[in-house]
Amino acid sequence: MEDGNSIIYGLEHQTRSLSPQYAESEAIRFLIGTQSLKPNSNQVHVVELEEDTGALHTKVFKHDIGEIWHLRCSPHDAANLVTTHNTYDPNTLQCTMGVSIFKLPTLQVIPKDLDELSSLQGRNAEDLELLVTIKPEKAEEEIRCAEWHPTDAGRLGVVYESSVRVHDVSSGAAVCSMKSDGRTRLKLTAGKWNPHQGHTQFAVLQDMHIKCFDTRTDCSKPSWSIDNAHRQLVRDLDFNPNRQFHVASAGDDAALNIWDYRNGKEPIFNRTDHSHWVWTVRYNSYHEQLLLTGSSDGRGLLYAAASICRDPDDDSEKTGKILEDGVLQSYEQHEDSVYCSEWSTVEPWTFASLSYDARLVISRVPRPFKYKLLL
User: Fold this and answer.
1) Per-residue pLDDT tens digits for 354-373
2) How many structural domains are present in the chain?
3) Within the chain, which residues score under 50 in pLDDT?
4) Domain range for 37
5) Backbone dihedral region of 320: left (phi > 0), alpha (psi from -120 to 50 degrees) or beta?
6) Where does the chain cross the membrane (predicted)?
7) Among 82, 110, 101, which Cα is nearest to 25's?
């Protein structure tokens, strides 16, 4: 795969969920969940990039439990994944959301020889092993997403429309719950574990606000918050992997904001390069100044936010080893809303974006920017 050239993978059904796999090997893999209204038609696609040749290899698994709204691979076990899904019951004519943990029957994607390649090409979608399903207390309650705890393989944070609950992975039982302020009717839209602060904080998005709760208590008062983080609905957030007080957010005001949440009155970095809602933002785990966004304008953007990632004694600006803030590259191979953008967990320069038109685009950071960071 050459720098500057993207690889496109198309699916049959519409899509809005994507996750990199935390592979035990050096394999570059992404998992995609489909969102089809047809019964027993949804799937999980495992896509592996063969870096030397640029070829894509895939395996497809059945997800008959329903359409997939959110998907996350486990950082603890490469074979495990969790999906947030919506299931239609023809008997009651109603939809019910749930969270299910599955196990992949195999981690192998690229065939070892030609005989195995022939057998894989003629194989239908395989079954996933269902480990546990978590259902809401009320059938009509919506579930936004489920996030693995960063260090405890036995804990899963689940964002409901009005609360956050930490569930036991083995039994599915809730071990603690944090409810949003009962005085407001504003619903939660997403959430994520804080990888810092002892891995006990869980941040949620509520309308235009960001609130972070301590999961060691059932208190409804947040540990910290950023009120009016965006002028319209906040869609996504991501924590800086290196700077414990920095968090990036994206919203319906077409903005990318980066905050120091110790003083959340004004963002320390702000860009409005998209022309519609921004659905996703992701930090690069290896190079904190690189970020990805995806928007309903059909574009994925690669950003640099180097000016807020320098330490006081950093002389990179004097030596010219710093990227200029702003958009480094625009990726416009999509024809619909870009709901997800994710970095590879094993290769720092490779990333993928996914749009609703069932199109996965795998790209690399252009070589000039890569060398400027390294040399």
Assistant:
1) 999 999 999 999 999 999 99
2) 1
3) 119, 122, 318-319
4) 1-135
5) left
6) none
7) 110
